[in-house]
């Protein structure tokens, strides 16, 4: 769980002035065993920072990270290693995640040694073989002695997943795990992640800017914009009836073979020209989406909207709900 977590970074500009980047602001997210939650948003929305907070690569500026209901913080290297026995992060770039100087065998063996120190060399080799088979790199003997550069992008990402599974985690955090892969194998990778959830009851946070893959894989969707979570709920509800204008824009902008060409709410015509995501150094006052929002009211420019619960775990952070205007979002909806 991330509980009201914020992460601010201080950066120095070329003139030596420092500024604070509000990369994540007051984010709350909870993953249950066997759940696949998609964290969706544009690049620069804070998704990766939130994943790194959940992986304990960063400590939050405020708020807390919790595992099995217990807050985790500090504790040094040993505590982090224990945490990483439960929570593993898979990066976007499988090539950068593997040591290029070492064969697959070494990359897996190192993780097994660190997290299962009681296993001897033969037992670790048997485990490494089984792990490669689990991620469909068979026969494993053909892959154990390969270097990362001898593998395709999809094979490398499978090795990265096998290495993450070596520690028998309960939670996988996938930061855009398929976005650098060839389109032809993305579906295979999504199916592999679904298989691991089904077999191991893994909880998976699937971070993506691609709402179509989130729709395919996930049970629930959380949407981030400019460092804040703006909507979260069951996938079918969020996609069929988004309750935040930004979610609606994301869905309207996503390719959907079932949606007729031109079938886009005219409110969002030209929305891409309404502006880039805001700077996180000096985000807009009030609702951070207001400069791009076709529904923006005067209040939105000065007052941050509260979270409105909509039942069934669905909520949205938008003033429309407080003013009885949420129905305006339903002008164009699409089946999940
Ligand atoms: Fe748009 Fe206002 Fe809702 Fe923000 S709070 S998304 S500006 S209507």
UniProtKB/TrEMBL annotation:
SMART domains: AAA
Listed Gene3D superfamilies: P-loop containing nucleotide triphosphate hydrolases
Residues annotated as domain ABC transporter: 1-251
UniProt cross-references to Pfam families, sorted A to Z: ABC_tran (PF00005), oligo_HPY (PF08352)
Stated family: Belongs to the ABC transporter superfamily.
CDD domains: ABC_NikE_OppD_transporters
GO terms classed as biological process: peptide transport; transmembrane transport
Highest taxon, organism lineage: Bacteria
Keywords on record: ATP-binding, Nucleotide-binding, Transport
Coiled-coil residues: none
InterPro entries tied to this protein: AAA+_ATPase, ABC_transp_ATP-bind, ABC_transporter-like_ATP-bd, ABC_transporter-like_CS, Oligopep_ABC_C, P-loop_NTPase
Listed GO MF terms: ATP binding; ATP hydrolysis activity
Annotated protein name in UniProt: ABC transporter ATP-binding protein
């Amino acid at each position: 769980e991330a509980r009201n977590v914020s992460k601010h970074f201080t950066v120095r500009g070329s003139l030596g002035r420092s500024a604070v980047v509000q990369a994540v602001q007051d984010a709350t997210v909870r993953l249950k065993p066997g759940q696949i939650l998609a964290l969706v948003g544009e690049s620069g929305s804070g998704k990766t920072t939130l994943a790194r907070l959940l992986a304990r690569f960063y400590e939050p500026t405020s708020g807390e990270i919790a595992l099995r209901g217990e807050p985790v913080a500090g504790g040094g290297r040993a505590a982090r290693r224990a945490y990483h026995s439960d929570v593993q992060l898979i990066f976007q770039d499988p090539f950068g995640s593997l040591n290029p100087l070492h064969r697959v065998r070494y990359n897996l063996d190192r993780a097994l040694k660190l997290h299962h120190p009681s296993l001897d060399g033969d037992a670790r080799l048997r485990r490494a073989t089984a792990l490669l088979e689990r991620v469909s790199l068979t026969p494993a003997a053909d892959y154990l002695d390969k270097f990362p550069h001898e593998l395709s992008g999809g094979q490398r990402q499978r090795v990265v997943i096998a290495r993450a599974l070596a520690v028998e985690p309960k939670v996988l955090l996938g930061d855009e795990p398929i976005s650098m892969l060839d389109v032809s194998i993305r579906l295979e990778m999504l199916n592999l992640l679904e298989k691991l959830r089904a077999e191991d009851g893994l909880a998976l946070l699937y971070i993506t800017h691609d709402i179509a893959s989130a729709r395919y894989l996930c049970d629930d969707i959380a949407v981030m914009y400019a460092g804040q979570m703006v909507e979260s709920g069951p996938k079918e509800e969020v996609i069929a009836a988004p309750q935040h204008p930004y979610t609606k824009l994301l869905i309207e902008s996503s390719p959907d073979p079932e949606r007729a060409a031109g079938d886009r709410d005219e409110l969002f015509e030209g929305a891409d020209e309404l502006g880039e995501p805001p700077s996180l150094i000096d985000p807009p006052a009030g609702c951070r989406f207001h400069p791009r929002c076709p529904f923006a009211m005067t209040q939105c420019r000065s007052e941050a909207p509260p979270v409105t619960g909509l039942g069934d775990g669905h909520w949205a952070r938008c003033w429309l709900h407080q003013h009885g205007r949420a129905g305006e979002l339903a002008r164009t909806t699409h089946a999940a």
